[in-house]
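Project outcomes to date are best conveyed with an example. Our students and postdoctoral researchers have been running inverse folding experiments weekly, and each run begins with a structure described purely in tokens. The record below, which covers 254 residues, was selected by the lab manager from last quarter's runs and is presented without edits.
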């Protein structure tokens, strides 16, 4: 039984799955999402265990009708399928992810599986077919013994997934910004005063403060002058009462 070169398989296996970004495991398929890690956008996924076992049993039943199996195999091998795999929509590809040739399919199905493993297995009871099919449950890539001999994988075809980087870019492009706020009333911008204008304004204020204020025209009369001389002898209320009375008389006489 040939074993793959570890250096070649590790070169094809990324450190994280490009689709689900999880650790992909040690096989050709991601242990989390099942995608073929060497060709993540091909749409090839690992065939489920039970579907693979059903395909092996169905292939054996169809092979009992040898003429039907030969004619069916002749047409299905061009698509990388055996008769049972064409019924279950399973496909055979190489371990590198490339399509398999019809000649390689005949070697896989007839020479290795039916003649070598089948006849040898039947010669020593049914241990050969049982071990061949049971190897699926012990292999992370769902490979039978004849898959290990020929270097093939069995996959199901689905829509090509989006890579994790493409999904993040798409999510960022879908982010919509909120609409702009409605325009408000237009207000003329207030510019800060220039140093020269500030100095001119302060100078004008200083000039205005320094200029003498005009004197108020205070009315006077002999009676008011006499009242001012008597102010010290009068109370404040009496002084204000008499002063207001004198001012009123002056206004009326004027």
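After processing, the design step wrote out the following sequence:
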């Amino acid at each position: 039984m040939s074993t793959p070169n570890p250096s070649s398989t590790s070169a094809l296996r990324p450190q994280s799955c490009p689709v689900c970004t999880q650790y992909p495991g040690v096989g050709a398929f991601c242990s989390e999402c099942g995608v073929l890690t060497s060709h993540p956008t091909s749409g090839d996924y690992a065939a489920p265990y039970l579907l693979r076992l059903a395909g092996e049993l169905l292939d054996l039943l169809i092979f009992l009708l040898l003429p039907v199996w030969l004619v069916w195999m002749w047409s299905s091998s061009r698509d990388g399928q055996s008769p049972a795999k064409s019924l279950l929509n399973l496909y055979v590809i190489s371990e590198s992810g490339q399509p398999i040739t019809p000649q390689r399919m005949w070697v896989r199905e007839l020479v290795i599986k039916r003649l070598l493993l089948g006849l040898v297995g039947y010669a020593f009871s049914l241990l050969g077919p049982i071990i061949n099919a049971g190897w699926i449950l012990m292999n992370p890539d769902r490979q039978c013994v004849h898959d290990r001999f020929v270097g093939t994988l069995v996959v199901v075809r689905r829509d090509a997934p989006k890579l994790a980087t493409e999904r993040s870019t798409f999510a960022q492009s879908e982010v919509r910004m909120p609409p702009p706020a409605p325009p408000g009333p237009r207000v003329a911008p207030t510019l800060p005063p220039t140093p020269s204008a500030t100095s001119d304004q302060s100078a004008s204020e200083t000039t205005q403060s320094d200029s003498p204020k005009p004197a108020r025209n205070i009315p006077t009369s002999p009676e008011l002058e006499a009242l001012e001389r008597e102010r010290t002898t009068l109370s404040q209320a009496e002084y204000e009462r008499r002063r207001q009375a004198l001012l009123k008389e002056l206004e009326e006489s004027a």
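The radius of gyration is 52 Å. The chain has two domains: 7-168, 222-253. The training component of this project remains on track.
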